[in-house]
Amino acid sequence: MSGGVEPAVLAFFAGLRGAPLDQAMRALTWLGSLWLLLPLAGLIALCAGRWRVSFSRLLCSLLAATLASHALKWVVGRERPGLHEALQAMPADAAFPSAHAAQSMAFAMALLLLLPLRWRGAGAALLLPWPLLVGVSRLHLQVHWPSDVLAGWAVGLLAALAVARSIPPAVRRDPASGPCRVPLSAPESRRE
Questions:
Q1: Of 63 and 168, which is predicted with more confidence?
Q2: What is the dihedral sign for C-alpha 179, 185, 187, 188?
Q3: Going by fewer Cβ within 10 Å, which terminus of the chain is more open, N or C?
Q4: How buried is residue 132: exposed, middle or buried, by Cβ count under 10 Å (0-12/13-18/19+)?
């Protein structure tokens, strides 16, 4: 985005300020916090039973997005916006990319990719507004530039896709073989 567009976007959000909306945005921003998402992903993975391997993709996607976004923050070192008063304490780390946007997108996309193909349209309609709202909350709170949020969404999307590609989903072929694609023991006819 050009230098004039990003300040204009932040000015737009500053113009929307009001107690109810400000409180809602403070709450929504927590939906992208690692403090919420990491225990939630771990709990889901632990409780997934026979699908534990698949749901571990959720945890791995979240961690990949977190590591990638913080590595980029360290490399880029972009200052946070200071055009308008922030509505929460300004985070101490760099702005680019938004880790909240990356983490919420990775979590939502990892969940979406776990759904059967026939449910992904409805799943997308339910899951994708979540990272979009987290990103908007970061702009409303004045703690990120718009390009930080866009980059965060891209990091989260790429993290979820990379993990989905590298960790195959658990497929239950034989009740005795567990949740893995490949049975843990050789078939009876091949043992000697």
A1: 63
A2: negative
A3: C
A4: middle
Give the long-range contacts of residues 92-97, CB within 8 A, separation 24 or more: 95/143, 95/144, 95/145, 95/148, 96/72, 96/145, 96/147, 96/148, 96/151, 97/69, 97/72, 97/73, 97/148, 97/149, 97/151, 97/152, 97/154, 97/155
Who contacts 14 (Cβ-Cβ below 8 Å, separation ≥6)?
A: 83, 84, 142
pTM for this model (two decimals): 0.81
* Structure-token pair, residue 76: 């880029």
- Other CB atoms within 10 A of residue 10 CB: 20
Contact 56, 74 (CB under 8 A): no
Give the integer Cα–Cα distance in Å for 102 and 62: 8
CA–CA separation, 71 and 155 (whole Å): 11
